[in-house]
Specification:
Layout: E1 15-23, H1 25-35, H2 45-50, H3 60-75, E2 81-88, E3 101-112, E4 117-126, E5 129-140
Antiparallel strand pairs: 1-3, 2-5, 3-4, 4-5
């Protein structure tokens, strides 16, 4: 695959389409099985509260993976992402109801780099709180 976005067609300030990602307890159980991360803070409400959390929380790596989808969907090629890093600032709290939680993610091109690469900064929130800080990706465009 190759990125479908051309480097010459992108300017600093280009905004990527924002996306919302629903998260339910069932989502967390499926992710735990796929990732092998069965820490009870991600599925056991009683345990999560005993260790001082407000409720069950989403896996940090799951949150990070959902956020980068804004970039991979924009480029059309997950392999276009050559660097990606975040700081975990707040947990995504997932209540045990029919709604769960929502991760909101948006991105903006903040720098054009050499070799057809751009840096994209992401803004990632849940329930109005910033859940990822310094969320940045370097992407190689066509």
């Amino acid at each position: 695959m190759t990125a479908k976005i051309a480097y010459d067609d992108v300017e600093v300030g280009t905004e990527l389409p924002a996306q919302s990602f629903p998260v339910t307890r069932a989502t967390l159980v499926r992710y735990a099985g796929a990732s092998g991360d069965f820490n009870p803070i991600h599925w056991n409400e009683e345990f999560a509260k005993e260790v001082g959390l407000p409720d069950v929380i989403a896996h940090g790596m799951f949150t990070m993976a959902e956020a980068i989808r804004v970039v991979t969907d924009w480029t059309g090629d997950p392999a276009a992402v050559v660097e990606y890093g975040v700081r975990f600032t707040k947990p995504v709290v997932v209540p045990n109801d029919d709604k769960g939680a929502t991760i909101e993610a948006s991105g903006k091109v903040v720098a054009k780099l050499d070799d057809n690469k751009v840096r994209v900064d992401l803004t990632v929130t849940s329930a109005g709180l910033k859940v990822l800080g310094m969320s940045r990706a370097v992407v190689r465009l066509a």
